[in-house]
Amino acid sequence: MKNSTAIAIGGFDGMHIGHQQLFKTLGKDGAIVVIETGYANLTPKREREHFSHYPILYLELDDIRHLSGEEFMTFLKGKFPNLKKIVVGYDFHFGKNRKYSSEDLKNIFDGEVEVIKEVAFHGDSVHSHKIRAKLQIGDIKGANAFLGHNYTLKGGVVSGQGIGKKELVATINIEAKEYLVPKEGVYATLTRIDDEEHLHPSVSFVGHRVTTDGSFAIESHILDGEVLCKDKAAISFVSFIRDNKKFNSMDELKMAIKKDISIASKELKFLQL
Q: How far is residue 31 from each of residues 87, 155, 247, measured CA to CA in Å?
């Protein structure tokens, strides 16, 4: 990272299509500077590294928010002694009380500052907060379009309620506390088991099991055959199937799950897995 000549600075939660526009201008000796605000729940912690080949330096906002513009620049040059170019978004602010803008950056930095214009998809500007809003209403396809990839929850395997395999369908249950969980309901998904490269077509449920024990679950049923999941799984959301619903009997729930599986199978049939 010491040899990097260009850096992109931002929060970069989601590593969405707007962020990717910044990275495209970095060249071969680029690096990414992530300012952690504590709000990252689309790509928490080091999850951003799956969406760029550039090295990433993580900075805690609380460690740098007190710096003046000049002090911040001195800090950056200490980290990147060969720095010649800084890339930021049009709405970038930095320094104490966010008082400095990209225009101030141009005055403070003696190299090139490139400001990337607002990125829009079908006329709608792309922002992480809009992706969060889409996920919270179940607009998975809209969120994925902004992200440029399928929204994914990753987590360690946990025990389910114990009735799935016996009375309903076998599921893999995960815990993903650091992520924003989409709207409660059923989704067509792709699930990666442990460290497998292969993505399994699946149907997944997120929410409270209102028909059975009322507990919260993130669970995925694999459609191409039962698999053994030892440690972890990643569930990638493709489309929303239905809202979470309380059924009057286990038979009603079974019929709904059968229908969910049919819908998910059709939705995922033409994807290249």
A: 10, 28, 51
What one-letter code names the amino acid at 47?
E
Question: What mean pLDDT do residues 96-122 have?
Answer: 91
Is the model's pLDDT at 254 over the cut of 80?
Answer: yes
| Residues 121-174: tens digit of each pLDDT | 999 999 999 999 999 999 999 999 999 999 999 999 998 766 555 567 899 999
Say what the pLDDT of residue 165 is.
56
State the Cα torsion 86-89-91-93 to the nearest 10°: -30
Q: Give the separation between CA 131 and CA 196, rounded to whole angstroms.
A: 28
Sign, Cα dihedral of 22, 23, 25, 26? positive
**Which tokens belong to 32?**
């990414």
Kindly report whether the global pTM for this prediction surpasses the value 0.90. Answer: yes
Q: How confident is the model at residue 99 (pLDDT cuts 50, 70, 90)?
A: confident
What domains sit in the chain, N to C, each tagged with a CATH number?
Answer: 6-125 (3.40.50.620), 150-268 (2.40.30.30)
